[in-house]
Amino acid sequence: MKKILVTGSRGQIGSELVRKLRETYGASNIIATDIRKMDDDHKEGPFEVVDVTDSDRLFTVAKEHNVDTIMHLAALLSATAEAMPKVAWDLNMGGLINALEVARELDLQFFTPSSIGAFGPSTPKDNTPQDTLQRPTTMYGVNKVAGELLCDYYYSRYGVDTRGVRYPGLISHVTPPGGGTTDYAVEIYYEAVKNKAYTSYIGEGTSMDMMYMPDALNAIIQLMEADPGKLEHRNAFNISAIAAAPEDFGKAIQKYIPEFKLSYEVDPIRQTIAESWPNSIDSSAAAKEWGFKVEYDLDKMTKEMLDRLTEKNK
Ligand code: VAH
């Protein structure tokens, strides 16, 4: 039976991944960890306070719980990383190599997400290939490319079973993201339900890849359970579900809330980051090597997001 330690369990991905993994593998087999614990955190199973920059603590918790897998999510996102690049390097890279070292020493399977942020302005923008130029111009992107190379190194040098995906912007109604460039695509749904209006900090016509959280979580489980003999790539796979710009979200919402109004007040910093990323990426390698597929398109995601957030607002 799999026994998994998750870092960053209180984050946008971690908070839902822990629930999904507990449903899939049993609550007691999923060790949720984060730098701080709040009362209502993941009470249905083990929770440990772990700062991923403390390698001894991470090793001790992994060993004591006798895990066989680490899913490392603790990291700063793009906009926050751009605001404090040195802090981002220390956490994103220091935390990653600590987690990889624990995986090497305890012979654990290892997952960590990369991002479409691993691409830069010189990367082909449309239908971005799996293998292509990666010269990102953000600290977050530098962290993601270095992270992909480091995870592949731990696979080729030490035989650690490292696997990863390049996530697009992730959209969910459970835990709002913090400090991301794509956060607007979450905020727009919250504001649509609350105020029937949203002012986007990303400009009209700026297309980015996006994905609904259930598809993002299924992708992790599918990849980690895939036959290693079929994997030609490891870190990290392009995956996406939706390529959309703010006006596409606006139109999708107006199908259910006709009076919804979208306006723009562009944030130059996050707009510059967004423009350095692809318009759409090619997910065919993930489909071929481990059967990646998605259930949610923009309309199905929009309907579910609005329904769930309306229920929450009651
Ligand atoms: C961010 N949500 O905006 C993250 C993600 C592709 C975007 O990496 O930083």
UniProtKB/TrEMBL annotation:
Domain NAD-dependent epimerase/dehydratase positions: 4-229
One Pfam family cited in the UniProt record for this chain: Epimerase
Source organism per UniProt: Virgibacillus tibetensis
Protein name according to UniProt: L-threonine 3-dehydrogenase
Gene3D superfamilies noted in UniProt: NAD(P)-binding Rossmann-like Domain
PANTHER family: L-THREONINE 3-DEHYDROGENASE, L-THREONINE 3-DEHYDROGENASE, MITOCHONDRIAL
UniProt cross-references to InterPro entries, sorted A to Z: Epimerase_deHydtase, NAD(P)-bd_dom_sf, NAD(P)_epim/dehydratase
Superkingdom of origin: Bacteria
Family the UniProt entry places it in: Belongs to the NAD(P)-dependent epimerase/dehydratase family.
